[in-house]
Amino acid sequence: MEQLNTTEMQTAADKKKRSIYSLELHEIKDWLSKNGEKPFRAEQIYDWLYKKRTTAFEDMSNLSKGLRDKLTEQFQITTLKTVIQQTSSDGTIKFLFELHDGYSIETVLMRHDYGNSVCVTTQVGCRIGCTFCASTLGGLKRHLEAGEIVAQVVTVQQALDQTDERVSSVVIMGIGEPFDNYDNMLSFLKIINHDKGLMIGARHITVSTSGIIPKIYQFADENMQINFAISLHASNTELRSRLMPINKAYKLDDLMKAVKYYIDKTGRRISFEYGLFGGVNDTVPHAEELATLLKGIKCHVNLIPVNYVPERDYVRTPRDKIFAFEKTLKNHGINVTIRREHGHDIDAACGQLRAKERKEETR
C-alpha cells in the first residue's frame, strides 16, 4: 500500500476535527473549563477568529503554547477552497467553494446601496425537490456543519478586507432548506450575530424556508429578531403542490396557520417569496387569488422574475405581466416589491453554477 505523506496525513486528520467556527462563545468557555483553561480566553479566541480573522491557531499570540496545541489537536479553522469565482457587471460575485470532503457549495456576495449582502448555503444539495430549482438536482448529499456555514461569511469578509469593506447583511437562501438543517442553522445565526463574533445585526439577517411547518412554530418560539421569509410561489394549494412537492406533506392552509402563529408570537412582519414563472403562476387572476390568500396578514411580497435554468423548463415572465401582477397586489393593499436582479450575466440561479461545474454531484 502506498504510504501517505505528512501533508496528506495531516489533511486526513483535520477532516475528523470539529470546526471551531461551529462553537458559540459559551461552548468555547465550557470547553476551556473542561480542559483546565481560563474561560475568559474564549473572548480572545473569538477576537482572533472573527475580528482578526486568522486562519491558524498558532497565530493566536496572546494564548499560551499549551492552549494553542490543545486547540490544534481538537479543532480546525475551516477553510473553503475557491473552485470558481464569477463576477457580474453589477458587482455580484458568485463563489463555488469546495469542502474538505470534495463536495461543493455556492455562496454569493451581492452589492447594494445600503451595503454588502452574503447569501449562504446550508446543505450540499437539497431534498425538497422544488421543480424550478437547480439546487435540488441530485438530491441531498449532506447537511453543513454550523462552522461550514459561518466559514462562507468569513471567507467573503476576508475578501472584502482587501478593500476595507464589510459584510453588512446575510440571507440564508442558498443551496438547501435551512429548516431541514435547523440546529446548525440556529447556531450559525447566533455566532454571526454575537457582538464578539461577526456582529451582524439580527435585523440584517434573513432566513427563508420552503415551509417545514413544525420548524416554523419552533422558530417562532425562539423569539429572535431575525427577518423571516417563506418561499410561497403559488396562490393555491394545487398549484403549489405542482411547483413544490413539500406542499403535499405540509398543506398551504396549515402553512398559513403557522405563519399567523409566527406573526402573533413575534409581532414581526413576514416576507413571501413569489417567483414568477411564465404561463404558470403569473396571471392577474393568480395575483387576485394571492391577494385573497394574504388578506389581513402582516406581510410583504417579494416578486422574483426567475432566472432561466437549462435543467428546468420554466421561462421568464414578460415585463408587462410582472408589472400587472405587482399592480394587482397593490390595488388590494398588499405591500409588494419586485426584487432587483443580481448577477444576470453569470450563473445566477441558485445551484446553477454547481450543476454546471459539478455534474457528478447533481445527477
UniProtKB/TrEMBL annotation:
Annotated localization: Cytoplasm
Required cofactor(s): [4Fe-4S] cluster
Active-site residues (renumbered): 106, 350
Reactions this protein catalyses: adenosine(2503) in 23S rRNA + 2 reduced [2Fe-2S]-[ferredoxin] + 2 S-adenosyl-L-methionine = 2-methyladenosine(2503) in 23S rRNA + 5'-deoxyadenosine + L-methionine + 2 oxidized [2Fe-2S]-[ferredoxin] + S-adenosyl-L-homocysteine; adenosine(37) in tRNA + 2 reduced [2Fe-2S]-[ferredoxin] + 2 S-adenosyl-L-methionine = 2-methyladenosine(37) in tRNA + 5'-deoxyadenosine + L-methionine + 2 oxidized [2Fe-2S]-[ferredoxin] + S-adenosyl-L-homocysteine
Positions contributing to [4Fe-4S] cluster binding: 126, 130, 133
Function: Specifically methylates position 2 of adenine 2503 in 23S rRNA and position 2 of adenine 37 in tRNAs.
Family of this protein: Belongs to the radical SAM superfamily. RlmN family.
Any further remark recorded for this protein: Reaction proceeds by a ping-pong mechanism involving intermediate methylation of a conserved cysteine residue.
Protein's UniProt name: Probable dual-specificity RNA methyltransferase RlmN
Organism annotation: Neobacillus ginsengisoli
